[in-house]
Specification:
Jelly Rolls; four-stranded antiparallel β-sheet; 4 helices; globular; binds manganese (II) ion; binds 2-oxoglutaric acid; alpha+beta
């Protein structure tokens, strides 16, 4: 296994472990999830119009890990045995990373996972940061890829116009961990990619318990 750790501007970092899962296991998990997950195609609002997201997705986690997204509160599906097992392995891999992080990340506990299924190279994910308030400041995001390799781009926020973008290839069975301030100063995305095969990505996250929402209903 190869581990590539890179520090980004302003205290961000990522670690790419590739391969991380043995090939046969990654392929078996890809097939099990492709067939066994209740995939949805959610709508998103963009410039006042509604579109179907260009990929399928699903959300699993602890009962309390609700997630508010484009005004919708999503309640997670309960952990299935393969997802619970994968979560445990992702947590140990994160705990072993030779990267200095504040206390929570030294014993990472992920209570939810977002799954995305890119049926072909025509499916994609636009540039964004995993910066929802439920994730708290400086979230640790652990991303497992299965199936066909795909280009993944991390680029600095617009104000850092001279800092370079990083382009990675996330292979089936790889683990990418993003930490530090990455979600504050960078955006990431999965551009359309002609000829790319089907791929499933799982991002493990820690959703903070939600208090009453300030300003709710106004
Ligand atoms: O598919 C990927 O590699 C990225 C997924 C992602 O950025 C997300 O779920 O927020
Ligand atoms: Mn993301």
């Amino acid at each position: 296994m190869r581990t590539r750790i890179e520090h980004l501007i302003e205290g961000g970092w990522f670690a790419l472990l590739d391969p991380w899962l043995p090939r046969a296991e990654a392929d078996a998990l890809f097939e099990a999830l492709r067939a066994g997950v209740a995939w949805r195609q959610d709508k998103i609002k963009l410039f006042g119009s509604e579109f179907l997201q260009p990929r399928l997705s699903a959300w699993y986690g602890d009962p309390g890990a609700a997630y508010t997204y484009s005004g919708l509160t999503l309640t997670p599906e309960p952990w299935s045995p393969p997802l619970a097992e994968l979560r445990a392995r992702v947590e140990s891999a994160c705990a072993e990373l030779p990267v200095a992080e504040p206390p929570r990340a030294s014993r990472p506990a992920f209570n939810s996972v977002l799954l995305n299924y890119y049926r072909s190279g025509a499916d994609s994910m636009g540039f964004h940061a995993d910066a929802e308030k439920e994730l708290g400041p400086n979230p640790l995001i652990a991303s497992v890829s299965l199936g066909a390799p795909r280009r993944f781009v991390i680029k600095p926020a617009r104000k850092w116009k001279d800092a370079p973008a990083v382009e990675l290839e996330l292979g089936g069975g790889s683990l990418l961990v993003m930490g530090g301030t990455t979600q504050h100063h960078h955006r990431h995305g999965v551009p359309r990619q002609r000829g790319a095969g089907p791929r499933i990505n799982l991002t493990f996250r820690h959703i903070l318990a939600q208090g009453p929402r300030a300003g709710a209903g106004t």
